[in-house]
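Subgroup meeting minutes
Present: P.N., E.W., G.H.
Scribe: E.W.

1. P.N. recapped why we're keeping a running log of single-chain structure predictions: easier to compare across weeks, and new members can see raw inputs and outputs side by side.
2. G.H. added today's entry (221 aa).
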Amino acid sequence: MTEASPEPIWHVGSLDTLNTAGDRPLAWHVRLDDPAIAATAARVRLTPEDLQDLAPRPDSATRAVRRQLVKAALATLAAIHPDRVRLGRKSGGAPLVLSPSGRHISVAGRWPHILIGVSGDPLGVDLEPADALPPPRDALTVAERAALDPADGDAALLRWVMKEAHAKCVGNASSVTPETIETVIIDGSALAYCAAGRSRCWLNRQNGLIAVMAVAQTLCT
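Output recorded in log:
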């Protein structure tokens, strides 16, 4: 059981203006085609271990920039030099923070947009363009289909993004199928749950994107 996490900070652009007071989760949205963001990444050194991990993965050059930005975010939040940030991977391939301790991360990308989530609790983030195609009907549960508002054009897409973020939060997005995840939105509160656990979802619509951060409330082991 985890304590209820506070509402995340949704931050766009340079880390120079990030307010790091308190211990709120961070959802950092950047554009990889922004020169200021490229400069931030360039200031972070990747270790031989980083390069070895990234080399066999598809689009390793973009993944390298993403890792530099993750290290920059963790260093800023912990007030340490980026060289002291160490990353690994969980058994399913999800990123793991080795140092500083007590932090969890999740990353999502739709070129040129990247969303980096950092929290003291397990989390998952995902994003999609607001004009993306909705998910297949059978990706939604019966209860979800019944709850959709026909007047809300991107309602089904929002549920899909919630599912993707929740799947990352509870383990691995490829190991938890969308139709096994139930999402609920009531009075502004959004939840997602499945056999692996439950998460509180924070929703954000801006810059032509739908973004979700799912922070664990309970996880099953």
